[in-house]
Amino acid sequence: MSDFRNPYTLSGAGLFMLSSLFVCYITIKRISTPSIWVALYWIIILFTSFNAVAKSFVNESRSRMLYYYTLINPAQFILAKMCYHAVLMLLLSIAGVVIYSTLFQMTIQDPLLFWTGAMLGSTGLAFVLSLLSTIAAKAGNNLTLLAILGLPILLPLILVSSALTKNAIDGLDWAVQWKYAFVLLGLNVVCFSLSVILFPYLWRE
């Protein structure tokens, strides 16, 4: 409800994604290599997630956070934030895939595997940035700190997501892909669990 009362965050993230896709289209026109197609897609999704998720806590005032503190416990708060951000990133990632594949034609040999990688990758970004944005907010809304802290954590997530989606385009057998899918699912679970465990300590500050 708080984010819906301030629609600029949501509309700004959508506008950023559309603008990035349009700029890529007018400058590149055509992408013939799957690796470049996948890399460009995840770059756009990564920066879109920073606009959509990372600014969520930064936009919360201290007085509003104190009001939340009197209403609910920290586990409920961070769970609600992560679930909301995960749904938001899923919607943005679905829209991004549809528009991106329309602008840059690419044959996906295994659509189910591709969507699995795209969905797990986008939810992983939402979980990680939900926690890191709280740290940035406690450090005086320092978005530079958010980028520095996020890079070591987001890098393996992006690498595995990129590998899984690229292999889906190439149509590699599922026997080869299970390890990437399980690693990506494990990263989601670890990020989700750490957020629930660590957030109460930030909450008390």
Structure description:
With 205 residues, this protein is mainly alpha-helical. It has helices spanning 2-5, 8-28, 34-58, 62-71, 74-103, 111-138, 143-170, 174-204. It has one domain (2-204). It is built from eight helices and no strands. The radius of gyration is 18 Å and the shape is globular. The mean pLDDT is 81.
What count of domains describes the coordinates? 1
Radius of gyration computed on alpha carbons = 18 Å
Poorly predicted residue ranges:
none
Largest sheet entry: none
First-to-last CA distance: 24 Å
How does the helix and strand content classify structurally? mainly alpha
What fraction strand?
A: under 5%
Number of strands: 0
Q: Could you give the order of the helices and strands? A: HHHHHHHH
- Give the helix level as a range of percent: over 70%
Q: Quickly count the helices.
A: 8
Mean pLDDT over the full residue set: 81
Label the overall shape.
globular
